[in-house]
Each structure stands twice: as structure tokens, then as C-alpha cells.
């Protein structure tokens, strides 16, 4: 059963500290582009490290920057451009199909609702939410396995899945931090709160953290 473990004021203090530590600007190149490029960049990012995603996205958008160019691009050329990303052949086919749909159904304009985005091939809730936040600057809560893990580890919520986490976080995260929550958790996970051997001794929120407090008590 999922539940909230902290008050809104406690959560706000944690997020204030993380914002002061990391800033709130998007952390990746592919999250600072047009809505269409954010969409394609996020598809590229699936099961791929950030630096490889950025490399693939830059190569692709230099050659094919928009749905009207990507829709008619040779699939083999797309695959070659995005080779740094994992599963590049599968993603090349998916990207071309997404571009065709956006060109035909939406006249080249990337849809700006979660429901419409999730109708596109290979676009799940997390990807759709990323497009809303980083492409359209609209409020959404992208929650992947890492954001789910950190939110539970530090003791904000107790949930079993990213979907459950998103539902509870909407109730908990202060409105001013909705747009920044994903990037703050990702930055914290990259720098401190790693899946294995987290750097609790360097953590700016260790005094608020359930996991960190337990480690400190154990010495």
C-alpha cells in the first residue's frame, strides 16, 4: 500500500536544499530544445546514459531537426546517426514513425497533452511528462525508476512502482517545485544518492533522509 511519509513543509525544506545545491536548470542538452526534439531526445534516452543520449541527439538534429525532415529520412541513416544510443535500430524505426504521425495527424506540431503523447509509439508516461516539462514548460511529474528509488530512499513516500510514486508525489510536492522535482532528483542521484554506495557523508539532505540517518546511527 502506497503512502506519504513526510509533511509538505518537510518536503519543501528538502527541495529547497537540493535546489540551492544543484540549481533548477535542465541538466541535459536534449532537454533544452524544441518540444519535438525533447520528445525524440527522451525516446533516445531510454536505457541509454545521458552523455550517449546527448551525442546521438546532437548528431540527429544537426541533420534532421524537425518532423517534416525526419519523417522522410532513410531509416538506415537515422540509425547510423543515433548509433551511440542503445537499441539504435529499434529507436530509428520508432522515431521515424513518431515523426510521420506528428506530421500527418498534428500538422507537424508536437501534441501538448499527456494522453496524446502517450498514443505515440514507444512513448510512456515518463517520456510524455518529460515533454510537458522540458518541451512545453507545463506542469508534470516525470517519474522513472531512479526518481522512484530516491523518493522512497530519502523517506518522502513509500510506494511500489513509479506510477504509484507519481500519484503520491502530486499530493506531496509543493506547487513551486512540481516543474523542478524530476531534475532535482536526477541530479541528486547522479551526484550523491547513487543506487550502490551512496555518498551519504557528502549529502546536503542527510539530516532529513531516512536512509542516511540509519546509516549514520550504525556508524
Account of the 3D structure:
With 219 residues, this protein is mostly helical. The chain has two domains: 3-26 and 142-218, Orthogonal Bundle (Endonuclease Iii, domain 2); 35-109, Hypothetical protein, domain 2 (Endonuclease III, domain 1). Helix content is 57%, strand content 2%. The protein has twelve helices and two strands, in the order βαααααααααβααα. It has helices at residues 8-22, 35-45, 50-63, 67-70, 75-81, 88-105, 114-117, 125-135, 145-153, 162-172, 181-191, 210-218; strands at 3-4, 157-158. The protein has a two-stranded antiparallel ribbon. α2 (35-45) crosses α3 (50-63) and α5 (75-81) crosses α6. The longest helix has 18 residues, at 88-105. The protein is elongated. The model has no long low-confidence stretch (mean pLDDT 94).
Chain-wise SSE layout:
Layout lengths: L2 E2 L3 H15 L12 H11 L4 H14 L3 H4 L4 H7 L6 H18 L8 H4 L7 H11 L9 H9 L3 E2 L3 H11 L8 H11 L18 H9 L1
Antiparallel strand pairs: 1-2
Summarize the structure.
The chain has 219 residues and is mostly helical. The chain is built from twelve helices and two strands; from the N terminus they run E-H-H-H-H-H-H-H-H-H-E-H-H-H. The longest helix is centred in the middle third of the chain and has 18 residues.
**How many β-strand runs?**
2
**Structural class determined from secondary elements:** mainly alpha
Kindly report the name of the CATH homologous superfamily of the largest domain.
Helix-hairpin-Helix base-excision DNA repair enzymes (C-terminal)
Task: Provide the low-confidence segments as ranges.
Answer: none
Fraction of residues in helix: 55-70%
Amino acid at each position: 500500500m502506497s503512502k506519504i511519509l513526510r509533511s509538505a513543509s518537510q518536503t519543501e525544506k528538502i527541495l529547497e536544499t537540493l535546489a540551492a545545491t544543484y540549481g533548477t536548470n535542465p541538466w541535459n542538452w536534449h532537454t533544452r530544445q524544441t518540444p519535438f526534439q525533447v520528445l525524440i531526445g527522451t525516446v533516445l534516452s531510454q536505457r541509454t546514459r545521458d552523455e550517449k543520449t546527448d551525442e546521438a541527439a546532437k548528431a540527429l538534429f544537426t541533420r534532421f531537426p524537425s518532423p517534416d525532415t525526419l519523417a522522410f529520412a532513410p531509416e538506415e541513416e537515422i540509425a547510423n546517426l543515433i548509433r551511440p544510443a542503445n537499441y539504435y535500430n529499434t529507436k530509428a524505426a520508432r522515431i521515424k514513425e513518431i515523426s510521420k504521425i506528428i506530421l500527418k495527424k498534428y500538422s507537424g506540431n508536437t501534441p501538448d497533452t499527456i494522453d496524446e503523447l502517450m498514443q505515440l509509439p514507444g512513448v510512456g508516461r515518463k517520456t510524455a511528462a518529460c515533454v510537458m516539462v522540458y518541451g512545453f514548460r507545463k506542469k508534470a511529474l516525470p517519474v522513472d525508476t531512479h526518481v522512484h528509488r530516491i523518493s522512497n530512499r530519502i523517506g518522502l513516500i513509500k510506494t511500489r512502482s513509479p506510477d504509484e510514486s507519481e500519484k503520491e508525489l502530486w499530493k506531496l510536492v509543493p506547487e513551486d517545485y512540481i516543474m523542478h522535482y524530476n531534475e532535482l532528483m536526477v541530479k541528486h542521484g547522479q551526484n550523491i544518492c547513487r543506487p550502490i554506495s551512496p555518498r551519504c557523508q557528502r549529502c546536503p539532505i542527510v539530516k532529513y533522509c531516512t536512509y542516511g540517518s540509519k546509516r549514520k546511527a550504525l556508524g
